[in-house]
Design brief:
By secondary structure, the protein is of the alpha+beta class. It is built from ten helices and 40 strands. It folds into three domains: 274 residues, Alpha/Beta hydrolase fold, catalytic domain (Rossmann fold), CATH 3.40.50.1820; 253 residues, Methylamine Dehydrogenase, Chain H; 90 residues. A hairpin with a 4-residue loop joins β20 and β21. Keywords: Hydrolase, Protease, Serine protease.
Length: 689
C-alpha cells in the first residue's frame, strides 16, 4: 500500500548500558502540525481502504439491527425512589430514569443525548443521594476520563449553578445520610503539573451543597506518589469514613475515622495483599487475599480494630475465586468464579451458608445489588448465547424472577459454546471458551478470532457480545482465552502474569493459537487476534514474537512502547503492574517484550488494523502511532497496516451507538478481507458506501 511518508530519526538512548533506538519519537508530540497531518493521512487511508472492502455495508446493516435495542438496567433504590438506565432503539446514548416507588411512572433524569449537538459530551459516574432527592453526576467531554461534577434536584430536574466541580477524573462521590453533601476524589487540572505526576495529586474532599467548590475542605491530602490511587467512601449510616491508598492492583492500605475527627487511624497496611472494606451496624467487613489467594471475608469490631482481633467469617474456597461481596437484606452476597463462570452465594452475616442463587444457566452474573436492610435485590445475567437479563430475587426466600431482558434479533439455539483447557509453554493449564455455529467441522478451515486481556486482575467471563454474531454466522469461531494476569483463579493467577512474569501472558496466548491449530479448529492463515488497552499490548507482543501464527491482528488503544509508557497518560499508576524502565532489572524485562522495539525489518507480519482514539487520556495514542510507523516501514512486510482513529473519543471509544456500528463494521470487514472469509449473507452487490 502507498502509506503516508514517515521519517525515521536517529534517536538512540542508552538505558542501563543498553542502546535503545526510538526512530519515531517525533510521533509522540500530538500537537505538532506534522503529527496532525500524518494522523489525518493515516486515518483517511484506513477508512478509504476499509470502505472498499466487500461486505462492509452488509455488516453495518446487521450491526444496526443488533446494537439499536431497548434494554433496562437493574434499579437502585434511594428513599422511596428507584433509579435505572435504559437504552432505546432510536437513541444513541443510554438515559437515566427515576420512579416514585417501584411501579410509578418513569421520568427522565439524565439524558446525555441532548447535551451536545454532535454527541461528544458523555455521562460518567452518577450517584443519587440516600433520600433520592438529588443526584451528583459527571459530564465527560469526548468520552474521555476527565470529567466535571454537577448536582441535580431530582423532582424539578434543575441543575445547580453553584455545585459544579472540575477535576473529577477519578471522582466517585459518596453522599452523607442527610443528603447535604458528599465526599469525592479531586484532581487538580493545573497545566503546570506534569501529566505523569498528576495521579499523585489526588485528594479527598468534602463538598457542602450550595457552597463554592473552591472552598471544599480537603479531608485527606495527596500521597505525592503518582504510582498510587486514593479512594474514599463514607458508610451509609455516615459513621465511618474510609480511605484506601492503592499501589496497583495487588496491594493497598486502609485508613478510617469518624467524620469530624482530625486524625486518620490505620486499619491495615497492605504488604503484598489487598483489602476491600465496608461497614454496617458498627462492624467492618474486610474482603482480602491476605493469606488466601482466592480471598476470604473478615468481621472487625471498630472498637478493637487490631489485626489480631479480626474474625474470619467466610474462609477461602480452594476451588472458587471470590470476587465482589455486598451486604443485602441482612445477608452477605458473594460472587465467585469457578473456571471463569459465575456462582452467587448467600450467607448470614456470620458467614453461615444459606443458599446458592439459582442462575438461568452457565454464564456471567453480577453480584446482588440492593440495600443492607431491604429484602429485594437484583442481578444481571448473560452468556455468549444469552443477551443480558435482569432478575429480581428475595434474599429471605430465595425466589428468583425475571425482571427485564434484552430482545436481540438472533436465534440462541443456533450456536454452541465449549470450554476447553490447553497447556501453556511452561505446562500451566489455561481455560478457553469457544463459540461457534452448531455443526462446525473441525477440519482446520474455520476463520477464528482469538481474544485476550491478561492483566490487572481482570477476569474474562462468558458474557454476551452481539458484535460476534455476524462472525459466527459466517462460519467463524470466537475464542476467549483466560490468560494469567487476570483474576480468574485469584491472586496467584494475577501474580503469574504481572511484572517480571509478564511473558507468561504472551506464552498463554500463543499457546491458545497453537492449540486451536493442533486441534483442527483453524490454521494460522485463518486465525486473527484481537485485544484492547492491556490486551493491545498482548496482541502487539504476540504479533512481534510469533508472527507466523496469525493471519490478522486488530489492536485497540494499546500500550506498545513499554520503555516510555510511564511518561504518558496514566502510565505511572501501572508501574506496580508492569514495572518501570527507570529500574535496571525491570527495564530488562520490559525491553525484552516491548512490541515497538521488536519490529524487525526482515519479517512479514500479519495484516494489522490499529484502532486508536483521539482523546484517549488514559493510554496515550502515541503507542499506536509509533508502532504503526515501525510496521509500515519494515521492509520485509507486505501485509496491510492500517491506522483508524476515532474522533471525539476516549479510551473506551465513543459512547454513541452509530459510532459503535461504524467501528465494528470496519473491524469485521477488515477481518473478513484479511482471512478470506466469504461475504456475509444479504450483502448487496455494490461495494463501498
Amino acid at each position: 500500500m502507498a502509506y503516508p511518508a514517515t521519517r525515521a530519526d536517529a534517536v538512540v538512548d542508552t538505558l542501563h548500558g543498553q542502546q535503545v533506538a526510538d526512530p519515531y519519537r517525533w510521533l509522540e508530540n500530538e500537537k505538532s502540525p506534522e503529527v496532525q497531518a500524518w494522523m489525518k493521512a493515516q486515518d483517511a487511508l484506513a477508512r478509504d481502504a476499509i470502505d472498499k472492502m466487500p461486505g462492509r455495508d452488509a455488516l453495518a446493516k446487521r450491526f444496526k439491527d443488533l446494537f439499536y435495542v431497548d434494554s433496562v438496567s437493574a434499579p437502585a433504590r434511594r428513599g422511596q425512589r428507584y433509579f435505572f438506565m435504559r437504552t432505546h432503539k432510536d437513541k444513541e446514548k443510554a438515559i437515566v430514569y427515576w420512579r416514585d416507588g417501584e411501579s410509578g411512572p418513569e421520568k427522565v433524569l439524565l439524558d446525555p443525548n441532548g447535551w451536545s449537538k454532535d454527541g461528544t459530551v458523555s455521562l460518567g459516574t452518577w450517584a443519587p443521594s440516600w433520600d433520592g432527592k438529588r443526584v451528583v453526576f459527571a459530564q465527560k467531554p469526548n468520552a474521555a476520563d476527565e470529567a466535571v461534577l454537577h448536582v441535580m434536584d431530582v423532582a424539578s430536574g434543575e441543575w445547580s449553578k453553584v455545585d459544579v466541580i472540575e477535576g473529577a477524573k477519578y471522582a466517585q462521590p459518596s453522599w452523607t445520610p442527610d443528603g447535604k453533601g458528599f465526599y469525592y476524589e479531586w484532581l487538580p487540572t493545573a497545566p503546570s503539573i506534569p501529566v505523569d505526576a498528576r495521579p499523585g495529586y489526588t485528594t479527598l474532599k468534602f463538598h457542602v451543597l450550595g457552597q463554592d467548590p473552591k472552598n471544599d475542605v480537603v479531608v485527606h491530602e495527596r500521597t505525592g506518589d503518582p504510582t498510587t490511587f486514593l479512594q474514599g467512601e463514607l458508610s451509609r449510616d455516615g459513621k465511618y469514613l474510609f480511605v484506601s491508598i492503592l499501589r496497583g492492583w495487588s496491594e493497598n492500605d486502609v485508613y478510617w475515622k469518624h467524620p469530624g475527627d482530625k486524625d486518620w487511624r490505620l486499619l491495615v497496611k497492605g504488604k503484598g495483599a489487598k483489602y476491600n472494606v465496608f461497614s454496617w451496624k458498627d462492624r467492618f467487613y474486610v474482603v482480602t487475599d491476605e493469606g488466601a489467594p482466592r480471598q476470604r471475608v473478615f468481621g472487625v469490631d471498630p472498637k478493637k480494630p487490631e489485626r489480631a482481633n479480626w474474625k474470619e467469617l467466610v474462609p477461602e474456597d480452594p476451588k472458587a475465586s471470590l470476587g465482589g461481596v455486598s451486604l443485602v437484606g441482612g445477608h452477605l452476597a458473594l460472587e465467585y468464579l469457578k473456571d471463569a463462570t459465575t456462582e452467587l452465594r448467600i450467607t448470614t452475616l456470620e458467614g453461615r451458608p444459606v443458599r446458592t442463587v439459582q442462575l438461568p444457566g452457565v454464564g456471567a452474573a453480577s453480584n446482588l445489588a440492593g440495600l443492607e436492610d431491604q429484602d429485594d435485590a437484583y442481578f444481571a445475567f448473560s452468556s455468549f448465547t444469552t443477551p443480558r437479563q435482569v432478575y429480581k430475587t428475595s434474599v429471605a426466600s430465595g425466589k428468583v424472577d425475571l425482571w427485564a431482558k434484552v430482545e436481540v434479533p438472533m436465534d440462541p439455539d443456533a450456536y454452541a459454546v465449549e470450554q476447553v483447557f490447553y497447556p501453556s509453554k511452561d505446562g500451566t493449564r489455561v481455560p478457553m471458551f469457544l463459540v461457534y455455529k452448531k455443526g462446525l467441522k473441525k477440519d482446520g478451515t474455520a476463520p477464528t478470532l482469538l481474544y485476550g486481556y491478561g492483566g490487572f486482575f481482570v477476569s474474562m467471563q462468558p458474557t454476551f457480545r452481539a458484535s460476534i454474531l455476524p462472525w459466527l454466522d459466517a462460519g467463524g469461531i470466537y475464542a476467549v482465552a483466560n490468560l494469567r494476569g487476570g483474576g480468574e483463579y485469584g491472586t496467584a493467577w494475577h501474580d503469574a502474569g504481572k511484572g517480571a512474569n509478564k511473558q507468561n501472558v504472551f506464552d498463554d496466548f500463543t499457546g491458545a493459537a497453537e492449540f486451536l491449530a493442533k486441534q483442527k479448529y483453524t490454521q494460522p492463515k485463518k486465525l486473527a487476534i484481537y485485544g484492547g488497552s492491556n490486551g493491545g499490548l498482548l496482541v502487539g507482543a504476540a504479533m512481534t514474537q510469533r508472527p507466523e501464527l496469525f493471519g490478522a491482528v486488530v489492536c485497540g488503544v494499546p500500550l506498545l512502547d513499554m520503555v516510555r509508557y510511564h511518561l504518558f497518560g496514566s502510565g505511572r499508576t501501572w508501574v506496580p503492574e508492569y514495572g518501570s524502565a527507570e529500574d535496571a532489572a525491570q527495564f530488562k524485562t520490559l525491553y525484552a517484550y516491548s512490541p515497538y522495539h521488536h519490529v524487525r525489518q526482515d519479517v512479514r507480519y500479519p495484516a494489522l488494523l490499529m484502532m486508536a482514539s483521539d482523546h484517549d487520556d488514559r493510554v496515550d495514542p502515541m503507542h499506536a502511532r509509533k508502532f504503526v510507523a515501525a510496521v509500515q516501514n519494515a521492509k520485509g512486510n507486505q501485509a496491510a497496516t492500517l491506522l483508524r482513529i476515532e474522533a471525539n473519543a476516549g479510551h473506551g471509544g465513543a459512547d454513541q451507538v452509530a459510532k459503535a456500528i461504524e467501528s465494528s463494521a470496519d473491524m469485521y470487514a477488515f477481518l473478513f478481507q484479511a482471512l478470506g472469509v466469504a461475504r456475509p449473507e444479504g450483502e448487496v452487490a455494490a461495494e463501498g458506501r
